[in-house]
User: Fold this.
Amino acid sequence: MKYFGTDGFRGEANKVLTVEHAFRIGRYLGWYYGKDHKAQVVIGKDTRRSSYMFEYALCAGLTSSGADAYMMHVTTTPSVSYIARSDDFDCGIMISASHNPYFDNGIKLLNSAGEKMEESVLEGIEKYLDSEDDIPYAVRENIGRTVDYASGRNRYIGYLISLATRSYKGKKIGLDCANGSTWQMAKSIFDALGADTYVIGNTPDGLNINIECGSTHMEHLQKFVLENHLDAGFAFDGDADRCLAVDEKGNIITGDHILYICSKYMKEKGKFGDSKVVTTVMSNMGLYKALDELNIGYEKTDVGDKYVAENMRQNGHLLGGEQSGHIIFGNLANTGDGLLTAIKLMEAMTETKQPLSTLAAPVVIYPQQLTNVEVDDKDSTMECEEVRDAVVRAEKELGDRGRVLLRKSGTEPVLRVMVEAQTEELCSQYVDMIIDAMRTAGKLVKVR
Assistant:
């Protein structure tokens, strides 16, 4: 794909992703879905200044092709997914660059099931973006309209509240909204569920999304939880499709911890069946060892929540996700949902009457070192005898006390060398050994 990666068309606003791109994407979608009926498309956005510009450009493109555009305004990616599938929209659009800085933005496309858009549609859009061809404009009564659809956001909030199994009365909860999509939504949900809520990262100005806040800057929530003696804290990213947590002791609860806590709880409640936990290859060995102790199976996919979701759908698994906090509850949502993740962690805490630190304790995270190495050719370096021998040697010496992962970047001439081991020193030792093999073989350009 030239424009669309695993998480949409993303780049610096009006440099990489321009308002013309947005208009033409809207033009194509309105035409594509409107061939035999009046297309209906739901749109959400995060708090970036450029999100308004892209929202209006998309609406102009959609309506000029004859589609009706339903505007949820500032909302989360999972809420657009939920409304797209529950209200029978042809597709959903989320305007966000997730955890990126404010000057970036992105257009994420979801199908009518609220899942990431099929590649065949994305290929059609890309071909249209690069062509000089045009598609017919709607005229007269066939021109589309925009519809205020804030009610969809409110129904999504109601859906999340309905999933809670009991009141959070007496629980002190911290929320870091990343100055993004959850800045109003998160507090209202936890207030409705009875918690005493303490909020940071809830003063968006269009330029401060993800700046020293949210799931990419956990140190602020850690300090906030300790200073206010909170039971737990939850940090979201810009569009709230992921969540990381902080326990009552100020420790970070990663996506791997969350997968363990939720799978164990679901199994104990008889709600996991024969399901496996779907992870990516970047999940920590500590998670797998803890799951082995519970006799819970797992699968590994390529990096990206897109691949986790595909595996879950194909195999009927109920839970999957990434270290970064993209957690998918397969029977409740078709995409990662940070607010849902927080609610499910609260369910485990309240039902077991155990603090978050106790629930997470069995997952002992192994030290991990990830180094990006620029090489002359990714494929030939991967197949190089010296490099393969170094990887095999590292794996043999580590045995079941660590692991090695060598993988290609999807967008750069870079190989990612990752080693997990019992100590930081061992990680560095074996990463250096593999990089030295690349250098000896004449494949190394530079270590980034």
